[in-house]
Amino acid sequence: MKILVISNLYPPAYLGGYELLCQQVVEELRQRGHRVSVLTSDHGNAASLAPQPSVHRDLQLYLPFSEPGRVARGARWRTHQVNRRATAARIAADRPELIFVWSQLRLTLGAAQAAEESGLPVCYTFNDEHLAGYLPRAWSPAPRAMIGALADRLLLGGITTARLRLRHTTSISRRVRDNLVASGLHAAESRIIYQGIPVERFPLKTDPGRIGSPARILFVGQLVPYKGADTLIRAAHDLAAARGPDAIRLTVAGDGPGSHPAELRRLALEGPAQVEFLGRVPHAELPALYRRHDLFVFPSRWQEPFGLTHLEAMASGLPVVSTADGGHGEFLRDNQNALVFPKGNPEALAARISALLDDPGLGKRLALAARTMVDTDFSLARYVTQLESWLDEVRRAPAA
Predict the structure, then answer these.
(1) Nearest alpha carbon to residue 278 among 297, 254, 258
(2) Domain 2-196+380-396, what fold?
(3) How far apart are CA 204 and CA 207, in angstroms?
(4) Which homologous superfamily does the CATH classification assign to the domain defined by 199-377?
(5) In whole angstroms, how far apart are CA 389 and each of 251, 261, 386, 396?
(6) CB atoms within 10 A of CB 138
């Protein structure tokens, strides 16, 4: 197949797992003989990005990710037109058989609109709920809200989802699909295709599930309030107070915008736990980081779309302690392949970690069961095979 992939970001310009997975899928499809080109933005770093074969950074973001999100209808409209023209030009140059749209967060819908206007089959993957942010503003008696709703429907309809057909879509979890439907998006028929990881990049530890002394606990993620790193730090203080300051070591890998990282560092100094902040760790260094630790904690407060870091830690042989209020809850099984605790509850988290510290066999049992699950159900090869089959099905389907 000859495929044009559209995404707001593409490595080496990326924010997290979403964009890294896009690159992994593109590379895997190319290895399978498909001709894949990518249309994306430069993330505001054009001067620092080396040219890549078949990667075209002609799109623009209406708002850089360094700034807080906002509607900015005027900027959206202007960027929408730029991206619509750039996408039409790329389609004319590449002449793909189908178009595969990934994240449009801060990209506007100009690229997707041009894709649908081309008459080619257009596929969308919903890896999170960002598209709900492009729905027309809801009606409200408040004057400002009423003006926004009228503008979205009468003047600026092109910058909302109103003109997208969204005929062929896939979602990475039932949670993502259900939340999009609840927001008002027409996604009830979206096909569920769970993501996967390149398992071979995350080799199993020599002694999977073993908890050392001190127990080395790992957090990997953005340092933003909804990721819940503060819950973990408080639990670490509780554990250190109960078992002694040398019983555990907590490593926090990640960074974030605003004041929250500094707030977490202050919180780390308010108790007896020893906490090390690594900052943002390149993805290529994560496999070694996982293997240097004993267990992985995911304390997120929000409904995560999925859980790639869970799978990476599981593949590496770390027992996982996690919340489950999101897409990751669709593969976590409490006391079978992970230990689950309620979000925002440091006492419950400390109790779950204590269970691993007190029962050497528990960690090994969880780690081995989790690795088997990842091998069987959540490899990148399996994910791409299912995507490949779906894309070919869409390509062959008669035009509506």
Answers:
(1) 254
(2) Rossmann fold (3.40.50)
(3) 8
(4) Glycogen Phosphorylase B; (3.40.50.2000)
(5) 40, 42, 5, 11
(6) 10
Query: Within 13 Å and on the Cβ side, how many CA atoms surround 348?
Result: 11
The label of the residue with tokens 């993805």 reads: 283
SS3 98: strand
Can 2-196+380-396 and 199-377 be said to share one CATH topology?
yes
Q: Is the bond preceding residue 203 a cis peptide, omega within 30 degrees?
A: no
Residue-by-residue pLDDT tens, the chain, 400 positions: 999 999 999 999 888 788 999 999 999 999 999 999 999 998 877 667 888 999 999 999 999 988 888 878 888 889 999 999 999 999 999 999 999 999 999 999 999 999 999 999 999 999 999 999 888 765 455 555 544 545 555 445 568 888 889 999 999 999 999 999 999 998 999 999 999 999 999 999 999 999 999 999 999 999 999 999 999 999 999 999 999 999 999 999 999 988 999 999 999 999 999 999 999 999 999 999 999 999 999 999 999 999 999 999 999 999 999 999 999 999 999 999 999 999 999 999 999 999 999 999 999 999 999 999 999 999 999 999 999 999 999 999 887 6
